[in-house]
Amino acid sequence: MTDKKNEKSKNQNRGPGRGMAMGRPAEKAKDFKGTTKRLFDYIGKYKWQLLLISIFTIIVSGVAVVGPNFIRFIINDMQRMINGEISNDAGIQNIIRYFIIVIVLYIVRFIFEVIMMLMGNKVSINIGKKMRNDLREKLEKLPIKYFDEKQTGDVLSVFSNDVDIVTNSIQQSLINIISSTFVVIGILVMMFLISWKLTIIALLALPLFILATATIAKKSQKKFKAQQKELGVLNGHIEEIFTASKIVKLFNKQEESYKEFSNINHSLAGQMKGAQFLSGLIRPIMEFISNIGYVLVVIVGGYLAGLPNPLLIGDITVFVQYQRSFVNPILNIANIVNQLQSTIAGAERIFKVLDESEELNEVEEKDFKELSVKGHVVFDDVDFSYSKDTDLIQDLNLEVYPGKQIAIVGHTGAGKTTLVNLLMRFYDIDKGAILVDGMKTTEIPRVVLRKQFGMVLQDTWLFSGTIRDNIAYGKSDASEEEIIEACKKAHVHHYIETLPDGYDTVLKEDADNISQGQKQLLTIARAILFNPKILILDEATSSVDTRTESYIQNAMLKMMEGKTSFVIAHRLSTIKNANMILVMDHGKIVEQGDHQTLLNKNGVYADLYNSQFLNKPI
Fold first, then answer.
1. pLDDT grade, residue 616 (50/70/90)?
2. How many CB atoms lie within 10 A of CB 377?
């Protein structure tokens, strides 16, 4: 059987970029329609705000379409005044009226645009806040199995990348899709109103736009996929070299490592050149096709200006302006559709986390009276396996009396850590029962059950904050005297006093500003202060020197007086005085007894002991 250990995971370079260039492949959702519907249901609380934003977007877009038309009237009236078709007084009055209308329209547009953006920001921020709160609440309810099986980088990516992509898209994509669609329709209407003949000529370029975009996008997608693949290789190489920098230097492999990096970097640069070049071609080609269309429009417009009922200068000028404005919304819609694919894919990952199976609470904490245990623990015919395909613990029977120290030893993967994981209900057993003071652990709320345990693990965990806060993590109401006393028992008080800020010293992320040994001492002090009924020590002194280990052993022995203790040990010198030693192999207890009894048996324990102290091979 293998012990279930938390792996230090690698952050994955996944997650689509925001506002991707035309031609870059969007990450697609498996169920676009279903996830989209669920996303709208999820943000239903904000539907009226989103509707109001949509209305404001239509108003702003309407002004953008109608505004140039009044400028057309101004230019046309100026031409009529010059040609003597209308009097100067009438022309000036018309121009002033149109000018005032244009100013009012643009003021209205500015006001609505500001309101729209403020509302959009507020809604997207609130949706992001709700998503992160729901995800955080969900994580509290997930079993330890979920965290063992998932990489940390994947979970972090959902909290950061996916939530950001979804919330930004809700604001930006909603505004852009409505605005672009309305502007395209509005411009087409205005162009037909000015001249249906010029509009048909202008639309002749549309098939060329579509053909050029589709052709380039198809080719550039392959390049972008290759680019993302190379980028993943590069990130993996950098992370590997960064985490193993000491090993690289130890074996003098800096030059080989740099050559490998250079090759990967060169390959990535080549892929990036191709991808960026192809996607960058779209805009110039669009401009080229548009410019040809402008020339045709101007030529035909000039011809039409000489016919009866001619087009005026303002008509042609504003028509060309509309024609120039016609391409951008089409490109925006194409980009938005591409971005929406990535948005729904991000939402799909968020909902996948929210849909994960939670820990079942057979008994609610509010329905359970306060538990006060003595520490009598029984494993009754217990079966457990991490997967259905592999048999691990089978028919395990064990009785531990209150106040006894039980040591658990065995080869790597024998099932030592699994035993205590089952005791604390980090995993639920498949068969049998585990009892604490005669009560099945399944009949005790997990929160209540785990309050009875204190743990000191081989892998230390300290959070960013003061030393005082870290030590009092399990007992927030502890007095200063209690904290200091716990640190004295753990032989770390003197070290803390030598620090400039003493107990107010702030630990950095992962407590990198203190040594590994001092980290271990602080976690031991935390367990001493918590003063639990049952102790679990997983190679608690592995990171301290021999002299400190002796101090800690004495402190631990004093702390374990009257408490049931489970000690997982690899260094057998630390468990000679245990009341009982359990020797595990492939999920079974193959030997049990005190240190001398097991040595006399000359079995598995004796082999383990001799391999450490007599250099005898196992």
1. very low
2. 22
For the whole model, what pTM was predicted?
0.70
Q: Which residues contact 385 (CB under 8 A, 6 or more apart)?
A: 391, 392, 393, 430
Condensed to tens digits (0 to 9), the pLDDT of residues 432-477 reads 999 998 888 888 888 888 888 888 777 777 888 899 998 998 888 8
Report the CATH number at residue 482.
3.40.50.300
* Domain endpoint, select from 531, 562, 592: 531
Cα angle 331-163-18, degrees, rounded to a multiple of 5: 25
Q: Which domain holds residue 473?
A: 461-531
Kindly state the tokens that stand for 614. 């007599």
In the structure encoding, which two tokens stand for residue 379, read together?
Answer: 């494993």
Sheet holding 393-400, edge to edge: 393-400, 377-384, 431-436, 439-440
Separation between Cα atoms, residue 594 and residue 607, nearest integer Å: 15
What sign does the dihedral 421-422-424-428 (CA atoms) show?
A: positive
Q: Are residues 82 and 72 in the same domain?
A: yes
Angle at 388 between CA 383 and CA 394, to 5 degrees: 20
Beta bridge pairs of residue 453: 534
pLDDT value of position 366: 57
Per-residue pLDDT at 133:
92
Q: 405 has which bridge partners?
A: 565
Distance in angstroms (rounded) separating the CA atoms of residues 2 and 387: 11
Q: What is the CA 593 to chain-centroid distance, rounded?
A: 48
CA 266 – CA 224 distance, rounded (Å): 16
Planar angle of CA 140, 144, 147, nearest 5 degrees: 85
How far apart are alpha carbons 398 and 378 in whole angstroms? 6
Please give the Cα distance from 142 to 162 (Å, whole number). 20
**One-character DSSP codes across 454-489:** EEE-SS----SEEHHHHHTTT-TT--HHHHHHHHHH
d(CA 95, CA 416): 89
Inside any domain, residue 368: no
> How would you label 489-502 residue by residue, b for 16+ Cβ within 10 Å and e otherwise?
bbbbbebbeeeeee
Span 245-263, pLDDT tens digits: 777 777 777 788 888 888 8
Specify whether 163 is located in the same domain as 203.
no
Nearest alpha carbon to residue 184 among 69, 62, 13? 62
